[in-house]
Amino acid sequence: MPTPSIQGVHKRSLLRDDVYQSLRDAIVDGTFAPGERLKDTELEQWLGVSRTPIREALLRLERAGLAIAVPGRATIVAPFDLASTISAQQVVAAMHELAARLAVPFLTAERLAAMEEANARFAMALKDQDVDAALLADDAFHDVFAAHCGNTVLPEVLEQSTPVLRRVERVHFASFAARTSVSQHAEIIRFARDGDAEGAARASRDNWLSLRYTLPYRGTLTEPL
What we know:
Layout: H1 16-28, E1 37-38, H2 40-47, H3 51-63, E2 67-70, E3 74-77, H4 82-103, H5 109-127, H6 131-147, H7 153-161, H8 166-173, H9 179-193, H10 197-209
Antiparallel strand pairs: 1-3, 2-3
Helix pairs in contact: 1-3, 4-6, 4-7, 4-10, 5-6, 5-9, 9-10
């Protein structure tokens, strides 16, 4: 797919994180297809920034498993890789399990209400088949635990490991099977409201591991997720 024709999406004053997020999202939503070459000059025109934040973003994408640098040639969009996706899923599930365990004892009524509101938006987005809105609502739901768990390293690990799962999440949230996540979220909230940190932790882990039903060729795996 060609580079989007709209130019100057970002002003130069915006942070390099915005450049990274734009490139990440373009890879995840298929604007840039697997194997496609990411050309600095075209990206500069599209995003309206200099080469430095572009190169920094591409390095972050490479670390996240969404891009591959071919020495002396170019950076290309990484193809889907089952092994790395499963590895990322295991890490992300474990981090959200830990976040729930740490955060539940400190949750306020306001934070629980935020989770309920996010889950309601999530359910509506799935009903409307709005994958982008579903992703945002799902992030808002899980971010409550991550933001209030008291572990400052945990969000950094999630930032590193979650992007490679976005392709699978987009497919999952576009399917009818995603409706089960609404009830899984409700169960997490119930455990949290009861002060059951272990129950919320297990339910959070299982919610993320449910993505395995969207992974292709899962029947060839030698070990269960």
